[in-house]
Amino acid sequence: MTGFLGEYYLWVMALHIIAVISWMAGMLYLPRLYVYHCDAEVGSKQSETFKIMERRLLRAIINPAMTVAMILGFMLVAHLDAWGEGWMIAKFALVFAMGAVHGMFSRWRRHFAADENRHSAVFYRYMNEVPTALMIGIVILVLVKPF
């Protein structure tokens, strides 16, 4: 295999996929926790438990997985020298959007931690679908390379 990763390309690809799966698992679970957290009374034991779960999920799984996925993803793009390809530019846009959603999820976790949630359970149910839609677009772009 040519490119700067050489024989390590498949290992980097495998680790990238593992990191993306971990990132997505957290991105799909965190807003579901928010849905349930909305129903917990402020200051209750249940609310405090959700705060711990949300913080640990974000800090121990979602943030590290995103970081690893991004670093390895850039290594793979460099290896393939695919920076200017149409499908890659579109993928970058969707990954950027996923990062923005990640940032919103982080902000909302801080709001819950401060007992200042500003949204309803229905809002979080809808937001739970956004990472799924972005993921579908990203996977199609990577595998089909439509342009």
Number of strands: 0
Q: Give the end-to-end Cα distance, rounded to a whole number of Å.
A: 24 Å
Q: What is the mean pLDDT?
A: 97
Measured as a percent range, the helix fraction is over 70%
The SSE order reads HHHHH
Shape: elongated
Domain tally: 1
With helices defined by DSSP (H or I, 4 residues minimum), what is the helix count?
5
Q: Uncertain segments of ≥5 residues (pLDDT<50)?
A: none
Supply the helix-strand structural class.
Answer: mainly alpha
Largest sheet: none
| CA radius of gyration | 18 Å
Strand-residue proportion:
under 5%
Structure, explained:
With 147 residues, the protein is mainly α. It has one domain. Helices cover 79% and strands 0% of the residues. It is built from 5 helices and no strands. The protein has helices spanning 9-38, 45-80, 86-113, 121-127, 130-144. The two termini are 24 Å apart. The model has no long low-confidence stretch (mean pLDDT 97).
Could you provide a short overview of the structure?
With 147 residues, the protein is mainly α. The protein has helices at residues 9-38, 45-80, 86-113, 121-127, 130-144.
Which helices and strands occur, and which strands form pairs?
Blueprint (H helix, E strand, L loop, with lengths): L8 H30 L6 H36 L5 H28 L7 H7 L2 H15 L3
Helix pairs in contact: 1-2, 1-3, 1-4, 2-3, 3-5
